Structure formats: C-alpha cells, structure tokens
Amino acid sequence: MNVLLIQELVGLALTLYISALKMQGKTEEEIRKMVDEEYDKSLKRNPDDLPDA
Prior knowledge:
mainly alpha
C-alpha cells in the first residue's frame, strides 16, 4: 500500500476519533492529555514487542 495513502487514512481515522470524543463531551485539554499519555506509552514500548510487518 502506498505510504501517502496510509498517512491519509491514519489522519482521517484520528480526525474521526477526535470528533467522536468531542461529541462525548471531552474538552480539547482532555483530548490532548489522552493523546500525550498514549504517545508517552508508545515511546516506552520495546520495538521487539511489535508485530512483524
């Protein structure tokens, strides 16, 4: 699959996810905190734990 297409799909998925969170009443600050926490967790993951592509 084309890398640019994958980037577009990921961007669209994130946009839809954030929109859904806003519809649930989450504030921008709450969403930003959730994203930051998930990003921090992803940095701590061991690359060996990831599935092979």
